[in-house]
Each structure stands twice: as C-alpha cells, then as structure tokens.
Write a structure and sequence with these properties.
The chain is mainly α. The chain has helices at about 5, 15-25, 30-40, 45-70, 80-85, 90-105, 105-120, 130-145, 150-175, 195-210, 225-255, 260, 265-275, 280-310, 330-345, 355-375, 390-410, 415-435. The protein has a single domain (about 15-435), classed as Up-down Bundle (Amino acid/polyamine transporter I), CATH 1.20.1740. It is globular, with a radius of gyration of 21 Å. The two termini are about 25 Å apart.
Length: about 425
C-alpha cells in the first residue's frame, strides 16, 4: 500500500458525531464562570442578554458561510484550507498555525481544571494535581490511539450527558420561586466610554464561550456525507448552544440579581447553593467535570486534524500525515499531546488564552473573505451547499468581525500585542519551510 493511500483519514463519522463534537467542543465551564464577570462589566439585565444573543447571532451567520466552505473543500484542518485556496500559501500557513495554537492550548488547561475540580471533591488528593492532570492526558491519548470510532462514541455519550446536566440546571432555576427577581433599573450610561469598554470586553468573553462552534469543519474529510451532514449539524448545533447559553443566563437572573451575580467568581455555584442547599456547589462541580471531559475529548481530536492538514501541505514535518489503523493521525496526536504535557508541567499557559478570541475572529474573518473570493475566482467548484442570502450575510459577517476585532484591540491591547509578535515571527519561518519544501 502506498504512503498516500495509507495516510488517508477514514470516512467513519456521521451527523450524530458532528452535533456531539460541536456541542462538546463549545460548551465548557466558561458559561458557568463568565456570567459573573459580564454582569460586573455591564450591570444591566437586558444589555447582558442582548450581548449573549448578539454573540449567538454572529456565530449563526458564520455557520451559514462555513456550511458552504466546509462542503466545498471537505478537508482536514478546517479554515486553513479555505484561506489557503483563496489567498495563497502564506495566508494559509499563518491562519493554520493561529488556528492550531488556539486549539492546542485547551487540552492542557482542561486537564488541569478537571484535576482541580476532582481535588475539591476529594481533598486528600490535593498534592496530586499535576499527576491527575497528566493521567487524564495519557488516558485520552490512549483512547484516541485506539481509533476514531472509540473517540467518536465517547464524544456522543459525554455531549449527551452534558446537555442533560445543563437542561436540569435550567429547569431547577426556573422552578425556584422563593425570591422575586429584582427590578433592574435602566442604565442611561450606554454610550459612556466605560460601558463601551465593558460591552467589547463582554463580547470577547462571550465569543470565547462560543469558540468551537465550527468544530465539525475540522472533521469534514472523515465525514461519510459532508454535503448533507455538515450544514445540518452546524445549524442545529449552533442553535442548541445559543438556546442553552441564553436560557442559563435567564435562569441565573431568575434566582439572583445582576448585582449579586456580578460579585460571583462562579455564578453557577452560588445559584446552585440557593436552589440545592449546601450540596449545590458539589452539583455544579459534577456538571463542570462532565462538561470538561466532553470538551477535552473534542479538543484532543481537533488539533491533530489541523496539524495533519498543515503537514500534508509541507508546513510541518512529513510524518505529521501518518495515520494508524484506527484512522487517527498518530504523529499529529502525539506531537499535540507532548505540547499539552509541556504546558501542564510548566503551568503558565493562561496568558496565551488572552489572544484566543483574537485569533478566532481573525481566522473566521479570513474564512468569510475566502467565501467571497472563491465565489468569484472559482465559481465552478462543486458546492453541495450554498450559503443563504449570499453575499449579504457573508459581508455582514465580515463587517461584524472587523468591528469586534477593533473592539478587542481597544479592550485588550496586550492580547493584540501577542498576535503582532506571532505574525512577525511567522513570515521568516514560512520562508524557511517553503525553501525546504
């Protein structure tokens, strides 16, 4: 069997996996933690809900564009392929590595956070935090080395359990009626600079919690019917995530006031303590662990697919395209896992999260531009799905992406600085790889 034949990903994933990986790769602990921070920034009930809806609508418009891109070029690596096709090798290289870094950091973070939650439940393990985190990483590496089907089944089970947990929490909140929802006074300082900063900072956090909505596109090459499954899973998955996020916020504000939630580091735990009594925090920790295990599994699968695509085009080592009998890009998985192990051991990777929203917006914006360009330059490319209301919704997505990017630069100049440094370093590295190729 030739190397090219041997190093192909298997078409073994379907619609149920797509929806599971979108939900699993998007809904994490962020939705349980960020409501308090956002309430502190905005201090206005309707404005908070509007920002969550705005973030969801932005993602839904993006799904409209990605549905066409992913079915038009159903290749491992997602956005990288579309940007490279439209704007050339360097744009593809830079966006691919932006996307890779953004998706390769979370596994280490989630392993550490899960270990911290386990220690809260079992305090006697407090001296073994790093050991637990590394053990989790090794366990998931072994799971995915065993084959794509096992990783897919695990994703579907954990995503289903996650949705059930969140639905139960929402229902419990709305059933609670011992406290009246306080009347929220309208904030007349909407156009003040301080509040404008709060809006963009809140949107940055919200976009961060929605990050992962396009997870299905990384697996397009392994899908048994990408033309039908990807659009269906993008729309249904994104709508489900929006519903859960908005309902959770409404549910939290049904139990506690905006002012109270604004002072909370883990709003969900404070809400659960009121509803369930002293065991409330334990319930939220269990929900958090379920949520994190599901998202960890998704993010163990995503970075190797990006690295596989980059390797195939000569932007990483040639062995990065090696696939085992179970359909796992084995070298790409091991390299990504070693990166995660390094981050777990040094434990100082949190600063890298500051530019996650930046890189996401940049990559998404470039992908939307790619759709516009490819419609013009390659109109005959097979398009099993065509985005609705093109080009107007695509143009709208680009305008909103640019506005959000400028807002993030304003609210987080440090994160923008990291992006600039990475971009400056990238071009000489690209030239070296190009010369080697």
């Amino acid at each position: 069997m030739s190397d090219s034949k041997k190093n192909q990903l298997k078409k073994s994933l379907g619609l149920s996996f797509n929806i599971a990986v979108l939900i699993g790769g998007t809904i994490g602990v962020g939705i349980l933690r960020t409501p308090g921070t956002i309430a502190g920034l905005l201090d206005n009930y309707w404005l908070i809900i509007a920002c969550w809806l705005f973030g969801g609508l932005f993602v839904l418009i993006g799904a409209n564009s990605y549905a066409e891109l992913a079915t038009m070029l159903p290749k491992a690596g997602g956005s990288y392929n579309y940007i490279k096709r439209a704007f050339g090798n360097y744009a593809g290289f830079l966006s691919g590595w932006f996307d890779y870094i953004t998706n390769a950091i979370p596994p280490a973070f989630y392993c550490i956070v899960i270990s911290e939650y386990i220690i809260i439940l079992f305090p006697d393990l407090k001296n073994y935090s790093t050991v637990i985190a590394i053990s989790l990483l090794v366990a998931f590496v072994l799971l995915h080395l065993s084959g794509v089907k096992n990783g897919s089944a695990f994703q579907q089970i954990t995503s289903f359990l996650k949705v059930i947990c969140f639905v139960c929490l929402v229902v419990a909140c709305f059933m609670y009626s011992d406290v009246k929802v306080p009347v929220i006074q309208k904030d007349n300082s909407f156009f003040q600079i301080g509040l404008l900063f709060g809006i963009f900072k809140s949107l940055q956090l919200i976009i961060g919690t929605y990050n992962g909505w396009n997870s299905v596109c990384f697996f397009a090459e392994e899908n048994d019917d990408p033309g039908k499954n990807i659009p269906r899973s993008l729309y249904s998955g994104v709508l489900l995530v929006i519903a859960i996020y908005v309902l959770l916020n409404l549910a939290f504000f049904h139990v506690l006031s905006v002012e109270t939630i604004a002072k909370s580091n883990l709003a969900a735990a404070d809400v659960a303590n009121i509803i369930f009594g002293k065991n409330g925090a334990v319930i939220v920790i269990v929900i958090s662990i379920f949520s994190l295990i599901s998202i960890l599994n998704a993010f163990m699968m995503i970075p190797p697919r990006i690295l596989f695509g980059l390797s195939r085009d000569g932007f990483f080592i040639e062995k990065g395209t090696q696939v085992n009998k179970g359909g796992t890009p084995i070298v790409a998985l091991l390299v990504s896992s070693l990166f995660s192990l390094f981050l777990i051991c040094i434990g100082s990777f949190e600063v890298l999260f500051s530019f996650a929203a930046f890189t996401s917006i940049i990559v998404w914006g470039l992908a939307y531009f790619s759709l516009l360009k490819l419609r013009t330059t390659e109109p005959d490319l097979p398009r099993p799905y065509r985005s609705k209301f093109h080009p107007w919704l695509t143009i709208l997505a680009i305008i909103v992406s640019l506005a959000l990017l400028l807002g993030f630069v304003y609210s987080d100049p440090k994160g923008f600085g990291i992006i600039v440094v990475i971009t400056l370093i990238s071009y000489p590295l690209f030239l070296v790889l190009k010369r080697r190729k």
